[in-house]
Amino acid sequence: GITRHYKFEIKLQNVTRLCHTKSMVTVNGKFPGPRIVAREGDRLLIEVVNHVSNNISIHWHGIRQLRSGWADGPAYITQCPIQTGQSYVYNYTIIGQRGTLFWHAHISWLRSTLYGPIIILPKHGVPYPFAKPYKEFPILFGEWWNSDTEAVIAQALQTGGGPNVSDAYTMNGLPGPLYNCSTKDTLKLKVKPGRTYLLRLVNAALNDELFFSIANHTLKIVDVDAIYVKPFETNTLLIAPGQTTNVLLQTKPHYPNATFFMLARPYVTGQGTFDNSTVAGILEYETSSLISTKNLPIYKPNLPPLNDTSFATNFTNKLRSLANSQFPANVPQNIDKKFLFTVGLGTNPCNQKNQTCQGPNGTMFAASINNISFVMPNTALLQAHYSGQSKGVYSPFFPNQPLIPFNYTGNPPNNTMVGNGTKLEVLPFNTTVELILQDTSILGAESHPLHLHGFNFFVVGQGFGNFDPNKDPPSFNLVDPVERNTVGVPAGGWVAIRFRADNPGVWFMHCHLEVHTSWGLKMAWLVLDGKLPNQKLLPPPADLPKC
Ligand code: C2O
């Protein structure tokens, strides 16, 4: 591989959408931010310079960061934030991954404007396991707020209620013609008839899983989270925040005398308010300048109903690893440690003196894993661990059972309160882990896209209701389960994942719905060094930010 250099200047830029102009934090003045293009095996040196008043950190979502945990990016987990006027060089090598990932800010809600694609091409001379596409397009889904998202979340955390929902969804930053004052901000894909295109889809939205479809065209799924899958065709796909999906789009053999909407709108399982609007882009066939595309009919795809859980289940069940000799699925077969973690919403006591909190029954909203709502430390966990100064920063005793015994199918408990703390689950190097993530209905069941830093995992099973340790494991798929970094825990159900803890460091795991992360649906794993020199975390770089 080669070394590729990027420079990310974090600066303010005025951006206008829906006839609202706001000054927002950007990388190099671009929204969405710049693309990173590299090949498997390349080393990336990305210098991030902070010219704004916010603290900044950037995460390379899905990059394994083997032994390079200092470059992972979540603020207060692997690094202190980059403060105003300071800079930090993220230094890592892409090992064993090719496909689409993305980078985003990993502090507060700044990822609403700081995100961009990471395109990882195979090594030179190595083909895709499908015919070479004629052209490739990244499409990033996002959310647009007319107001400043830092104010949105600050207000929500202060009052304990749900945050204001976004004003629009976007594709590559563009809301499209179904919103007021937005027709000129429409993503247009210009295609030729009879060709194959590779669309690299990224869900960078803050709070919504999305359905996506293109009218009168089928999509062939070939890759998720930068891992090839057994190809299959679908009219609509589901993509959760934190997930990426590569699809092949085969265009019509002849010029079709129509243009086609590409639509995305949310899949909703929770009870709260949400943005129920639809982002539209246009698939337009290029033609000679003699024929006008102006008055062509526009076809619209039919998207599933907002709460179509059976679509979601069928779709995710179809995702399978290639699991062939070139791309084997190394599913851990013998498990050293089994965990069951509940994930869900709960409450904290109101901390305001004279006002009522806006959470349920005058409380503050909280969210938890095993009933622990994670409290962000004020120094970075990885630095505390590495320097041996963890005392007072974190506890290495993560509760292995939920504190409130919980029966999903029963009535919700009267006590919705969570515990709070900064607790880590410690794993010796190379531990094989099976983790059941069980959704709770304490404040209503909801699908949670759980993201694990530092690893890919295999999704070996999923189901509804309570996980049954006797009945469910025999049906696990240990042959060709999909391998990924973000998985939707089904609303009112569970998902089983397996991974090998072969990457020393501190690795964040959290719901990729930003509001749930803010409420505490997050925790971290501490993976210890192995005995051999190449099983140890590398030393911290000299420019690592200080808190
Ligand atoms: Cu994409 Cu911890 O995040």
Question: Which structural class best describes the helix and strand composition?
Answer: mainly beta
Do you know the CATH architecture of the largest domain?
A: Sandwich
Give the strand order, joined by hyphens, for the main sheet: 10-9-12-17-14-15
Molecules bound to protein = CU-O-CU linkage
Subcellular location: Secreted, Extracellular space, Apoplast
Catalytic activity: 4 hydroquinone + O2 = 4 benzosemiquinone + 2 H2O
Family: Belongs to the multicopper oxidase family.
EC number: 1.10.3.2
Describe the protein:
By secondary structure, the chain is mostly beta strands. 6% of the residues lie in helices and 39% in strands. The chain has helices at residues 149-159, 309-317, 381-386, 514-519, and strands at residues 3-17, 20-27, 36-39, 43-50, 58-61, 87-93, 99-105, 115-121, 135-144, 168-171, 188-191, 196-203, 209-214, 219-224, 227-234, 236-239, 244-250, 259-267, 279-285, 298-299, 337-348, 364-369, 372-374, 419-421, 424-427, 432-439, 448-452, 457-464, 483-484, 486-489, 493-500, 505-511, 522-527. Strand 1 (3-17) and strand 2 form a beta hairpin. The longest helix is centred in the first third of the chain and has 11 residues, at 149-159. The model has no long low-confidence stretch (mean pLDDT 95). CU-O-CU linkage binds next to strand 5 and strand 32. GO terms for molecular function: copper ion binding; hydroquinone:oxygen oxidoreductase activity. It catalyses: 4 hydroquinone + O2 = 4 benzosemiquinone + 2 H2O. Its cofactor is Cu cation.
